Amino acid sequence: xxxxxxxxxxxxxxGALAADWWDPKGSSAMLHRLNPVRLSYIRxxxxxxxxxxxxxxxxxxxxxxxxxxxxxxxxxxxxARMGAAVTGVDAAPENIGAARAHAxxxxxxxxxxxxxxxxxxxxxxxxxxxxxxxxMEVIEHVADPAAFxxxxxxxxxxxxxxxxxxxxxxxxxxxxxxxxxxxFGAVPRGTHDWDKFLRPExxxxxxxxxxxxxxxxxxxxxxxxxxxxxxxxxxxxxxIAARHG
Length: 245
Description:
Blueprint: H1 8-15, H2 29-50, E1 64-68, H3 76-81, E2 85-90, H4 93-106, E3 111-114, E4 130-136, H5 145-155, E5 156-167, H6 171-183, H7 200-209, E6 212-223, E7 227-230, E8 237-244
Parallel strand pairs: 1-2, 1-4, 2-3, 4-5
Antiparallel strand pairs: 5-8, 6-7, 6-8
């Protein structure tokens, strides 16, 4: 029996933000600032995992990618531009509607699906697997992180690469990501529940339980000049790459 991982309240919260998801100055402004840094890390890991030249414009050509918790497609579209056959999954139908409309306007063919990841099937009725699986700032919003990770692992192909990002549960993240960010409007109120944040060692333990082996982890920290940067402290946020063990 598949375990439901969607938290209806979380889905409703983010679905209400769908209309201006693509506005870099709107309610998702923080994601727009995070996205280039996350993409840089994803590209680094793609090149290392598949031994691809960093100058290659389409490193995912011939590969499939799955973006879980895709929102309106902020990360999904760049993956398609890297050459992947991309599927985006999100709990909120409103986000999927916005994602489809934006992708169409960009001339991108992306397969979008609203609902539980477990319900995503191929035309033949079998569960699809993917070369690349990404899920950015999502696991802290699901009802059952262990079941969610098991679902992600089941979708990862044998030589696949998985990349996640999530806030760390520290005193610093409680002050800066929850209290200050929501109070001063950097993110909409109710976006974060600090108690659901996972420490890196907790997330790695959950990944190991579902047969994943962590191959890299790095911090995602604020930068005075660039907004955010890779490396350094993992106290606020971190990215993690894994493959089947």
